[in-house]
Design a protein that fits this description.
Elements lengths: L1 H11 L1 E4 L2 H14 L3 E6 L10 H13 L4 E6 L3 H5 L5 H6 L4 E5 L9 E5 L3 E7 L4 E5 L3 H17 L1 E2 L9
Helix pairs in contact: 2-3
InterPro entries: DUF7931 (IPR057691)
Organism: Cellvibrio polysaccharolyticus
Protein name: DUF7931 domain-containing protein
Length: 168
């Protein structure tokens, strides 16, 4: 009976995400609720989702709120991020000890696109460019599965040369 209640609770906390505005609201909610870990796996930090002042402000607050908080980002295509002055770039350059970003070499279809936070919150995209997907704010199973995908992709990913900072 306890497992049934747990499953019902997890399903109750799952929300369909149907458009970009809804996706941005869920992204901000997950970022604000997370305390230590955020992981983003994205095609290119899609400009309609992540190139947004409110998203960048939430990410900035997240990495500054706790000395142990860390944001890791995996992207397939860094071109937009680098060439089009993505709003997250100043944050990445200012806080390299708090934000790590790498490029996935594996084909885009090998991994789902998502945001996960603190091993129990997730926003999984079926169509990242349109903001379609599902958000779950209390499901360790889903978040841990996404975390396993993220760790596998992170091991295979490479540093993005254009984002490397020089230490003097």
């Amino acid at each position: 009976m306890n497992n049934d209640a747990s499953l019902e609770n997890q399903q109750h906390n799952r929300h369909a995400v149907t458009d970009l505005a809804d996706a941005r609201a869920h992204l901000i909610n997950i970022i604000q609720q997370s305390r230590r870990y955020l992981h983003i796996l994205s095609e290119n930090l899609h400009p309609n989702l992540y190139d947004d002042d409110s998203i960048c402000a939430a990410l900035s607050a997240f990495v500054r709120q706790n000395p142990n908080s860390h944001l890791r980002i995996l992207i397939h295509d860094p071109v937009y991020l680098i060439r089009h002055h993505h709003k997250i770039m100043p944050l990445i350059r200012r806080l390299p000890s708090k934000i790590s970003i790498r490029q996935i070499i594996a084909p885009a279809g090998d991994f789902p696109f998502f945001l996960s936070g603190d091993l129990d919150k997730s926003l999984l995209f079926s169509q990242e460019d349109q903001g379609n997907g599902h958000c779950n704010l209390q499901c360790r199973v889903t978040a841990q599965q996404l975390q396993a995908h993220f760790e596998e992709a992170w091991r295979q990913a490479v540093n993005i040369a254009d984002l490397q900072t020089l230490s003097l």
